Amino acid sequence: MSELPWIVWAVLIPLAGAVLAFLWPAQGARVALLVWLGTGVAVLGLSLQLIQSGVQRYAVGGWHPPLGISLHADGLSTLMLLLTALVFGPIMLYALAYFKNPAHPFWALSLFLWTALNALFVSGDVFNVYVSLELLGLSAVALTALGGQARALVAAYRYLLASLLGSLVYLLGVGLLYAEYATLDLQTLGRVISLDPASAVALALMTTGLLLKTALFPLHFWLPPAHASATAPVSALLSGLVVKGSLYLLLRLWLEVFPTEATSGLLLGLLGAGAVFWGSLYALRARELKPLIAYSTVAQLGYPFLAFPMLGAGGEVVVVYFVLSHAFAKAAMFLAAGSVLLAFGHDRLSELRGLLQSLPLSVAAFALAGTSLMGLPPSGGFVAKWLLLQASIAAGQWLWAVVALLGGLLSAGYVFRILTRAIADPKQPAQPKAAFPMVELVALALAIVSVLLGFLALPVLRLLEVGR
Amino acid sequence: MNEGGLVLLAILLTSLIPGLVIFFLAETSVRLRTAINLAGALLKLLLLLWVMYRVGQGDIYELRWPFLPGIDLVLRADYLAVFFGTLSAVLWLLTTLYAVGYLEGSPHRSRFFGFFSLCVFSTTGIALAGNLPTFFVFYELLTLTTYPLVVHRGTAEAFRAGRVYLVYTLGGGVVLLLGVVWLTVLAGPADFAHPAGLEAVYAQQPITLALMFALLVAGLGVKAALFPLHGWLPVAMVAPAPVSALLHAVAVVKAGAFGVVRVVYDVFGVDLLDRLELGLPLALWAAVTILYGSLMALRQDDLKRRLAYSTVSQVSYIVLGVALLGPLATAGGLVHLVHQGLMKITLFLCAGNFSEVLSVKKVSQMAGIGQRMPWSMAAFSLAALGMVGLPPLVGFYSKWYLGLGALESSYPAFVLVLLASSLLNAAYFLPILYTAWFVAPRADVPRPSQSGGETSWMLLLPPLATSLLVLGMGLLADAPFSPLVWARRFAQGEYDP
Q: A224, B125, B335, B362: which has the highest count of C-beta atoms within 10 A?
């Protein structure tokens, strides 16, 4: 059992599923659920292998680097694979009830997306990473366009341009590195790289490309329209997982490849602070639920970058914990917003009074996920904030602690914008078009996980340490 | 996990589970809801009394859950924990009964009682927390669970009050969190049971230590309503009467005061604070708040607002007692945690009755109310006289020990603050009593319509019970297991190890 190369299956199963669902759309939903099962088993198998025998490597076709393609999974990769499976599954269930159409193009596209994410997390070289990123971007753009309205198409088009530009800039950097070091393997690069001007330019290009894809302020312009106008399950995937793909890669490059003297994280930290304030202010002004949540993503993506100046001194743990807790909380919020849209056909904040009476489970999801976004205990967001404060105080870099604390207050501001309206008595009670207990429960389940993460820090951090 | 730890967990679950279950009950299932509520509250009280007995025998009750590398979430039943926990369990039982009667027929009761129970859950967690990180978790949870109660009425005014409440308490939480994490980074997550590690910090950077103390106390001071951080308290008066009663007697303000007690005795320790010379500034801050609250109370015509400012003043007695850093003052401050709770909850529940039955909300409308509602007014009078400090009511013992403590401390002048405040207490309570009993009722104040009692027994029993405690605990102040004896025992433990 432990001999099987689970690491390969974790990519092959979603890929096969995606192709099947593409060729055979009528069975899309069924294939997707089987893929969830299969990938879940593969990822669990990989985690067990990792815990028993450390970092997993696999040379595809028996060709070892620098010639062949190598797959590589350490604690960080495995954690991201687990996260993806855990977030993807509930979103699939939700989409089943949301689209009510097993032949919807959503299934094939989302499986391509999953393939891309998993491939990204186990890729051992910068070129495979590029291929995965490209697949990730294209499937995400196609999913955004599924929204169908003109608004969604325009947003998808902007997203496409941003994504392509990001990949292109990243690829330029990769080209420069290859020209100089003649290797694309991440670990080899990490050993041989030196800080000459060409490498510095390469690193700057790669970082910029990835920042654009991660939508870090001020490169976030494409994100709010895309995440707000996509259908709810897609928004949940985009905000919960897709932007985390490029963020993961940034973290890995900065930790393992770039020479430490090159990586003054100060600039990234400052941009992160800008994101926290800018995103929160727009979330405080949004008139509708989904744009509010989308701007909240802009703000929340700032927090992990606050920890970049402390990479190597506890900062990496902070990044990972923010990624985990935000993925669950934000997916829950978008799915709950989707329930509101299903029930009332709109998500105007001004007309959400009395939501607690009509959709109590969704309001509970907003409240619990909101607790995590505000970083209040007990929740994953609180653990992440605590780790950030601890790292920045220990490093004597108080600025990041102050930004995180103020950001928490701002996020309380926009979360309570939703909750106060929900709890208020309506002038005329609005009746939901139908009951959607399944849809609401899925959102609530994700929100509960984002709270439970507040109690699971130790096992998560232990898994993260494998290979470090 | 040891057996004792399971008991502590059970104590938390007796309010967490009812709270969660009640959310799913229909509005109309009043009996089931009330049964679940009271069963949880009774069970909690019994368990706490058991733990109190065992802790008195020297047993250790502790529960740990790993939170972060090197940091555990700890529940532990020590003297202070049991002291505060039992107070909240008793008052909560009575207030639940009152709330059932008070909210009869009003909308959103499942929501109300659900959050009400979650509020008890948080307060019990604050009582049992065994280190600062755990304390902080429950402290913030209390903010979140009380918010829906503050805005329960759903009016524009209620939402404004809710916003003010959030701005103050979340802001305070941020300051407190900074202090807690800083302390943890420098000295580790020391349990309250083993305060250690700060000596080394003191040797190297005493100013940092003083700054951390300031952060912690400022964060806690928001909930303890220390001037000028008290702004949320009078505004939050829009909440229904049982909520106001609890916010003032045990939940929010006491969480702050209790936190100050913990920080002074179980984080820094008397000795260290003495060397840092932080007792005097804290005592001065408390004194200013005591006088300010009393002066403001004097100017309020709205009964609930007058009581609110009185709370601002009275809670700082606790802080003053703690800050004077002597055994007698400590006993006085600590016992006031209980005594003020009993008196203030009585006052608020009676004020709720006046407003429910007669729509009397202002002091100026209270003429002759003693004839219309003799039972409620009698309970009110006992509690008010206790606040003034009349022996043998409980308030007298608080002030007596605080006064003696001030005299034996290095700053005997604080006894003047206590005297001045007592005069002010008399100045804002005695006129109420006079108007209520000795002025003829105004013709336009309606008589209570029901034949028989002045209002339903559920609204009458809780304030009568607490007012009898105000008298009884005063008479039995020296009996074993009285709060005063426990407070003295704690104080002796702190000062004569």
A: B335
Is the minimum CB–CB distance between B212 and chain A shorter than 8 Å? no
Residue B198's nearest CA partner among B178, B218, B179, B177 is B179
Domain count, chain B: 1
- Say if B249 falls within a structural domain: no
Model confidence pLDDT, tens digit, residues A345-396: 888 988 888 888 888 899 999 999 999 999 998 899 999 999 999 999 998 8
Please list every residue in chain B whose beta carbon sits closer than 8 Å to the beta carbon of residue A423.
148, 151, 154
What is the interface pTM, i.e. ipTM, of the complex?
0.92
CA atoms of B155 and B166, how far apart (whole Å)? 16
Interface subset of A 361-400, CB within 8 angstroms of B: 371, 376-378, 382-383, 385-387, 389-390, 393-394
Question: Which stretches of chain B score pLDDT less than 50?
Answer: none
pLDDT digits (tens, 9 = 90+) for A19-72: 999 999 888 889 999 999 999 999 999 999 999 888 888 887 666 666 667 888
Nearest-by-Cβ selection for B67 from A401, A412, A457: A457
Residue at B106 is within a domain: no
CB contact under 8 A, A387 and B184: no
Cβ within 8 Å, pair A376-B154: no
The pair of three-digit structure tokens given for residue B73, joined into one six-digit string: 């979430």
The answer to whether B319 touches B403, Cβ cutoff 8 Å, is no
Per-residue pLDDT of B24-69, as tens digits, reads 888 888 889 999 999 999 999 999 999 988 888 888 888 998 888 8
- Tell whether B61 is covered by a domain: no
Find the domain containing B336 and state its range.
Answer: 314-497
DSSP letters for B260-313? HHHIIIIII-HHHHHHHT-HHHHHHHHHHHHHHHHHHHHT--BHHHHHHHHHHH
